[in-house]
Amino acid sequence: MLRSMYSGVSGMKGFQTKLDVIGNNIANVNTIGYKKSTINFQDLLSQNLSGSGVNPMQVGLGSMTAAINTIHTPGSSMTTGVGTDLSIMGDGFFVVQDPDNAANRFLTRAGNFVLNSTGQLVNPQGYQVVGTNGPITIDPQTYDSFTINGQGEVRAKTAAGAETVIANIGISNPPNPSGLSKVGGSLYEITNASGGSTAVQTVGNANTQLGTGMLEMSNVDLTEEFTEMIVAQRGFQANSRTITTSDEILQEVVNLKR
User: Where is the Flagellar basal-body/hook protein C-terminal domain (predicted)?
Assistant: First the structure.
């Protein structure tokens, strides 16, 4: 009987975590480049009651969280018309680095980039966008204008009308994107589980292309999230009822002596 109470507690804890995951997904429904998370459960150890039968007689001891995975399916594209807004039409991530420490590199699907006062292409946090030859800089003293095409080429034009490719947007394709660690700001940190490398390649070599003047929105589906919320709520209620029922039965046992 006490086993049922502790099983109910483990189930309630699991569904609390599930609600935390769902709540975070819903909070980021409009976050650029956000990738939703899902949670999976697994059973705990089972207690052997007897080994005398043909089949083992076991009672489970509840459940626990098995994994919380990030789902890297593409989100829908939103047209902005801003030339420095980029979206990846396929797999891969943009690479950005800390301007104060070039060794700190991060990956992101959020392509809402801008030019800072020194002509560097940066994200909203001020991290430099990395190209195939390092951080991308468009010198405003040298070039009058620039464009970024679908192949990731940064093409700058001088006052005389001469156009040249001055940089290429870098794309990183980790072997296991689900192994990346979220660090906030729509950034991901490389881990050993993800492949342990931030190798940068051109858009063409990454077998993808860019959407210019577009941003990738969150891949959160509100219909799915609210459905999962109902399941989590009912699961939590059912586990709490298990605890309540076990308590009532224990009370009956205590009352036997009366």
Answer: 213-256
